[in-house]
Amino acid sequence: MLQQDSNDDTEDVSLFDAEEETTNRPRKAKIRHPVASFFHLFFRVSAIIVYLLCELLSSSFITCMVTIILLLSCDFWAVKNVTGRLMVGLRWWNHIDEDGKSHWVFESRKESSQENKTVSEAESRIFWLGLIACPVLWVIFAFSALFSFRVKWLAVVIVGVVLQGANLYGYIRCKVGSRKNLTSMATSYFGKQFLRQNTGVDQTS
């Protein structure tokens, strides 16, 4: 079962029925989905390698650009639809209702006593390391291309930042909750800090 977080109501939805049979397995450090773990890193790392070595691999800018964008597109689809669901039990997506209104949905497995048995610690580390590190590299590439006046590469780098940044943002929303929850947490935290500094009394919830 998953907990669905959208702009409307919150409800439990069953999207991981195929994996519910594995909930009785103990949580282990080993990689339970080696193929998903491989492709979680393969496309994004390959795109970075091609970008760094493109001038050595090919003299054609168009060939390198198309290759990088294809790798980034495959990575976006794989991470958004497959590896996040299998490796950490998270998924985000968009749907349009009957009135034509767009809804963003951020889903995560419902917390339970069995949750720790369904997620591999090794896979979780691989997932979040790849998800965070690669967008940071593309941001560095963007500044490098900008300051070195490599204008033709700037568009390619922006595609990398947007596609991988979108997945990072989506999964962070899945992990920590909706924007409303984040705002409430931040307001509560700063309120406690303000009261502590001015009155010496900690606010209790």
Description:
The chain is α+β, with helices and mostly antiparallel strands. 60% of the residues lie in helices and 11% in strands. The chain has one domain. The chain is built from 5 helices and 4 strands. Strands 2-1-4-3 form a 4-stranded antiparallel beta sheet. The longest helix is centred in the middle third of the chain and has 27 residues, at 61-87. Keywords: Membrane, Transmembrane, Transmembrane helix. InterPro entries: TVP23-like. Belongs to the TVP23 family.
**What is the rounded Rg?**
21 Å
Helix and strand run: EEHHEEHHH
Instruction: Provide a count of the helices.
Output: 5
- What share of the residues does DSSP label as strand, in percent? 5-15%
Return the average pLDDT rounded to an integer. 78
Structure class: alpha+beta
Shape: globular
Strand line-up across the major sheet: 2-1-4-3
Helix content: 55-70%
Family: Belongs to the TVP23 family.
Pfam family, one: DUF846
Keywords: Membrane, Transmembrane, Transmembrane helix
Transmembrane segments: 35-53, 59-79, 126-147, 153-172
